[in-house]
Amino acid sequence: MTSPGRNFVTLKIETDDGVTGLGDATLNGRELAVATYLSEHVVPLLTGTDPHRIEDTWQSLYRGAYWRRGPVTMAAIAAVDVALWDIKAKVAGLPLYQLLGGKSRDRVRTYGHAHGSDMPELFDSINARIAQGYPAIRVQTGIPGLRKVYGVRSTLDQGVLPVVEDWDSAAYMRHVPAVFEEVRNEFGPRLPLLHDVHHRLTPIQAARLGRDLEPYDLFWLEDCTPAENQDGLRLVRRNTTTPLAIGEVFNSVFDYQTLVNEQLIDYVRSSVTHFGGVTPLKKLFDFAALHQIRSGIHGPEDISPVGMAAGIHLDLAIHNFGIQEYSGYTDLTHEVFPHAFTFTDGYLHPGDAPGIGVELDEQLAAAHPYAPAYLPVNRLLDGTVHDW
Ligand code: GCO
Ligand code: MG
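^ thats the input. predicted complex w/ D-gluconic acid below
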């Protein structure tokens, strides 16, 4: 575990021949649980096994635990899976994307985050992202009467106990369409715009918001309602043509079964790190492709450069790529995880180093130890707990 600005959990596997592979097991706010799951329950099972048997190892960790799915289990399995792919690709002397079928495109389109508590601040933030070359931008905004720009986590908030934020869905729904009206007027019709509702609306509210935002031609509306209620998306889908993206908190293909089979969404948001690794995420993308659903891998700062790199290899290789979220990292994080992937003019490329192309500076990592930190929690104006 290391905290070069925020916490990351990294697994390193070493073979008898001295080949090493890295995997990301970071689960924001629950890091110690995954680290312990790995060190106490997974590492003893791996010692002495054949690192080339990736599918078999995945199945034995998934089925062999008896207790299935869940973010802690799947982040731990993901770390093993990615480390084994890293090893296999290094042994082959190829960048991972070559083992996934080779490249389907030359570079990986990203979107970046813009946010502001009011319109001038938001416009400045969008302009800053455009100046950095981002070809698409996620727009989050302050809501009159609420204290914080929601869904945006500041590292300054880090503390031993969660920060409590406030929320009012009615005020949000009244305000957001007006924000997109102003953004479209200022930045024109071409700039792809995204928006993250962060699980806060009921299906009928989400349907209404999707409809209200149709004139502004969003690239996607994300997590419009808590999607463990997959059936709820039928109501949203019937009522709006705004494209929908879901899945950053999912950890198994079964979480998507209704959403994909009934084509209720347009983008699947799972990351390598939280979905059990490259092995199951490639299967999810192939399943999604049957329904013309595309990828939109979750890429906040709380996915480490190791998990990010694994995702970029997949982005380059799959046919039904949509977009990749990329928020960048602190300078120190880049130093702790020296990497072959590059970010140029808003596009990522995994690089051509053998493996996933990320190393870990263990000395520097150790100089920045784990620091307890929680995500915020949300309360309505009367004090009721609400989805954050
Ligand atoms: C997104 C997100 C994240 C999450 C974060 C929680 O990037 O779309 O919703 O920023 O809030 O990953 O740990
Ligand atoms: Mg999100």
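The first strand starts at residue 10 and ends at 14.
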